[in-house]
């Protein structure tokens, strides 16, 4: 039974999560010299749902945040956010002052747009940036930054273990950007419960074969491996295509329909494990729905709004990170599943019960996303 728990752990981990795009904020800093003083013009897009959790914006607790509720708390929003951004130029702190507040819609909902300026008393090519927004409340939160200086763009991703980073102005490190977005890709697939559940739902029958209306264990590891290779390759190819197309602004789809289709993909894949329809063709399902999952992955790069000079590096790094994270999951799953394939608790409990759990979660997510409800 301990082994069963290990197999079901990916299905139950974060089971109360909404399984949408993880918590991110988007920080844009533009450096220029004004009247002999180094000045930073900033824009910080922060999700209203995150701010509501942190400081409580929904005054009447009706589940929605109106402009009136936000407007009444704008000073408090700035007072909460700006102390979590510590910028030093040449080792000297830069003082921040809010200048404007707006509201914008990102792919995953409404964001407050906090605009501010920072005056830096000491001119220097060295910039140290410390970011700590929401880290004490949500360790999965990430801060995605775009830093512009004299037409050149640098990027960075802040996390609890990388809360302070140093930048040399005018020095572009493509390798640093590649590594940052590779890590982000790994992170987003690992905490993207809906993506993981879709993949696992397709992989569960890979160590079994269907005979006389019943699941039987495959006879060789090579058979199971080949089935996994076809599924993972199809999924990888498909979501790489749409991730690239969406990030490059070639094709865009409404976030609501993308997220709903992702939930539906889990539902159909899990149903297929109980009443097989796509026997031997699960790789086709992986490819078709992988195209939809690619649009879900792309939201990170779309919302950051990178220029073309920086986008390609970020796109390649993020995509390879997603593949590496996906490969790690498969590498852990397949050997254990193959070892347990003959047992009744794999064929009956893990496959059947696990699929029912996924059907339940996917059904709830589908209803939530189609009708803008919050059931979990």
What are the defining features of this structure?
single chain, 376 residues, alpha+beta, 6-stranded mixed β-sheet, 4-stranded antiparallel β-sheet, 51% helix, 23% strand, elongated
Structure report:
The protein is α+β, with helices and mostly antiparallel strands. The protein folds into two domains: 190 residues, no CATH class; 150 residues, no CATH class. The protein is 51% helix and 23% strand. The strands form three sheets. The protein has a six-stranded mixed beta sheet. Helix 7 runs parallel beside helix 9. The N terminus is likely disordered.
Number of strands: 12
User: Can you write the helix and strand succession as a string?
Assistant: HEEHHHEEEEEEEEHHEEHHHHHH
Mean pLDDT: 89
Helix vs. strand class: alpha+beta
How would you characterize the largest beta sheet? Answer: 6 strands, mixed
| Overall number of structural domains | 2
Q: Order of strands in the sheet with the most strands? A: 5-6-2-1-8-9
The level of helicity is 40-55%
Distance between the termini: 28 Å
Number of separate helices:
12
Radius of gyration: 23 Å
Low-confidence spans: pLDDT under 50, at least 5 residues? 3-19
**Overall outline:** elongated
What percent strand?
Answer: 15-25%
Structural topology:
Layout: H1 2-12, E1 24-34, E2 37-47, H2 48-55, H3 67-71, H4 74-81, E3 85-89, E4 92-93, E5 95-106, E6 109-120, E7 126-131, E8 142-149, E9 152-158, E10 164-168, H5 174-190, H6 193-203, E11 208-211, E12 214-217, H7 221-247, H8 255-274, H9 282-297, H10 299-304, H11 308-340, H12 344-371
Parallel strand pairs: 1-8
Antiparallel strand pairs: 1-2, 2-6, 3-4, 3-7, 5-6, 7-10, 8-9, 11-12
Helix pairs in contact: 1-12, 5-11, 6-8, 7-9, 7-11, 8-9, 8-12
């Amino acid at each position: 039974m301990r082994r069963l728990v290990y197999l079901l752990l990916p299905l139950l981990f974060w089971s109360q999560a909404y399984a949408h795009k993880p918590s991110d904020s988007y920080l844009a800093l533009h450096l220029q010299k004004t009247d002999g003083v180094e000045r930073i013009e900033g824009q910080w897009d922060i999700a209203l749902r995150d701010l509501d959790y942190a400081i409580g914006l929904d005054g009447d607790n009706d589940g929605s945040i109106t402009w009136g509720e936000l407007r009444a708390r704008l000073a408090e929003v700035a007072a909460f956010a700006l102390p979590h951004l510590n910028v030093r130029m040449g080792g000297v702190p830069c003082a921040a002052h809010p200048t404007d507040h707006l509201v914008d819609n990102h792919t995953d909902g409404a964001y407050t747009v906090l605009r501010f300026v920072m005056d830096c008393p000491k001119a220097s090519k060295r910039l140290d940036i410390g970011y700590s927004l929401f880290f004490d409340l949500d360790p999965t939160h990430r801060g995605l930054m775009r830093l512009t200086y004299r037409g050149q763009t640098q990027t960075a991703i802040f996390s609890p273990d990388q809360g302070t980073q140093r930048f040399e102005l005018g020095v572009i490190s493509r390798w640093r950007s590649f590594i940052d977005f590779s890590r982000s890709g790994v992170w987003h697939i690992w905490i993207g419960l809906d993506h993981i559940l879709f993949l696992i739902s397709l992989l569960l029958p890979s160590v079994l074969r269907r005979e006389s209306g019943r699941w039987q264990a495959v006879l060789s590891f090579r058979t199971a491996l080949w089935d996994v290779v076809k599924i993972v390759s199809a999924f990888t190819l498909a979501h790489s295509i749409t991730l690239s197309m969406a990030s490059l602004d070639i094709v865009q789809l409404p976030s609501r329909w993308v997220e709903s289709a992702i939930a539906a993909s889990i539902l159909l894949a899990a149903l297929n494990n109980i009443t097989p329809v796509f026997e031997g063709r699960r790789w086709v399902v992986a490819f078709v729905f992988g195209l939809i999952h690619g649009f879900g992955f792309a939201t990170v790069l779309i919302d950051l709004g990178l220029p073309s000079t920086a986008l390609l590096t970020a796109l390649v790094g993020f995509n390879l990170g997603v593949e590496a994270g996906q490969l790690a999951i498969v590498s852990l799953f397949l050997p254990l599943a193959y070892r347990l394939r003959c047992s009744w608790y794999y064929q009956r409990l893990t496959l059947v019960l696990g699929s029912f759990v996924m059907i339940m979660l996917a059904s709830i997510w589908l209803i939530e996303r189609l009708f803008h409800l919050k059931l979990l």
